[in-house]
Amino acid sequence: MRFIVHVDIDAFFAAVEVLLNPALAGKPLIVGGLPHERGVASTCSYEARRFGVHSGMALRTAFKLCPQAVFVRGNSQLYQTFSERFFRILRDYSPDVEETSIDEAYLDLTRCRPIYPSFSAAAREMKARVERETGLSVSVGVGPNKILAKLATRKAKPGGYFEIEPGREEKFLRDVGIESLPGIGPKTQVLLRMLNIHKLGELWGLPRPTLRGIFGLGGDDIYLQSRGIDSRPLTTSGLPKSVSRETTFLQDLWDRRLLLAHLAYLCDRLTLALRRDHLYAHVIEVKARYADFKTEGRRRLFLTPRQEMADIYKIAEELFLGLWEGSRLALRLVGVKASDLVQVRPLSLFESWSDRHERLGSAVDRVRDKYGFGAVLTGREKMLDEVYPFERKRGFVLKTASLTK
Ligand SMILES: [Mg+2]
Known about the structure:
- With 405 residues, the chain is an alpha+beta fold.
- Among the domains are: 12-76, MutS, DNA mismatch repair protein, domain I (3-Layer(aba) Sandwich), CATH 3.40.1170; 169-226, Orthogonal Bundle (DNA polymerase, domain 1), CATH 1.10.150.20; 242-347, Dna Ligase, domain 1.
- The protein is 41% helix and 20% strand.
- The protein has 15 helices and twelve strands.
- It has helices at residues 12-20, 46-49, 59-65, 76-91, 119-134, 146-156, 169-174, 186-194, 200-203, 208-215, 218-226, 256-276, 309-324, 351-371, 379-387; strands at residues 4-9, 29-31, 43-44, 70-72, 97-101, 104-108, 138-143, 161-163, 242-253, 279-290, 295-306, 331-343.
- The strands form three sheets. It has a five-stranded mixed β-sheet. A four-stranded antiparallel β-sheet has the order 9-12-10-11, with helices on one face.
- A hairpin with a 2-residue loop joins strand 5 (97-101) and strand 6 (104-108).
- The longest helix has 21 residues, at 256-276.
- It starts with a strand and ends in an 18-residue tail after the last helix.
- Bound molecules: magnesium ion.
- Magnesium ion (MG) is lined by residues 8-9, 12, 103-104.
């Protein structure tokens, strides 16, 4: 018997916007763009959903349904930061975590039996900790497999905890609407409703060959899913596919020095994330978006994976200048990405060459934890600091240090 926990942040992007601007609390809020813009809503607050607005809906349609809503463009880098914090907390509770999207995950606690006297207590504690440490509301569902855990979360939303206890699966499933199953798409729903089947319990009357006759191979899936049978393991590579940092400028930029300063800052934030998770990157990629939204990227592969700030900045600068210097057009965004990641724990075979950099990196991290990001800056970042001052704590600023030595 497995103990699977499904966790989902409620109205994620909208909730982050409310954290930043508490005046938005309780108002219909739509993240994704302004009403006259093309594009779709990426998240809507629960207050907006009451007007029939949902994610994926064209902004213009959302505006027609709910003209009083507050529309914001959103900030993907900010959401990414919250998402990373969310997953970091989850990983404290189990090594078996499947990240299914930016705000959603499955945890398998089964292997952690010796650590937890009660799985339920552990799951509830995890929920409370995520909410305390991120300020975001999450819904948690628990069951013996992924399908049941996810259905439990639907029931728990928004903000609740719902556990399907062993032996009560059938009772739980009986009244669940057929539209809740991931294997039942809109077309299948129409067919089932024609057969007067609206709830999972009503599906149980149809024998497997009948379902197969109507839906082909998908019929088997419907047969199993409707009974809550799901033996899929969690997909847990454990490592993120990539780590990236990008900045959209308030005004388009073409000042070479300022662009490189931004790039240095992004590399600094990127390597901070790599160090924290002991990750080294085989591929470094740089992205530039021009004022007309045309986007270009350049990447380079390394057989020896990289983590150090000075290395990664040097590579990023070369790639960036290679793609931008020919045109020198104004840019609205630059980004840097590390991918093909490998995890190297301290005391491994890379120790000899990575040791010194890791020690410098973690010393920098400790100073920043204490005195703020602005306490240690590279020469290039210092220039950026004059334009957009970095955070400093206690009004105390350490002498600017160089990360290159
Ligand atoms: Mg969500």
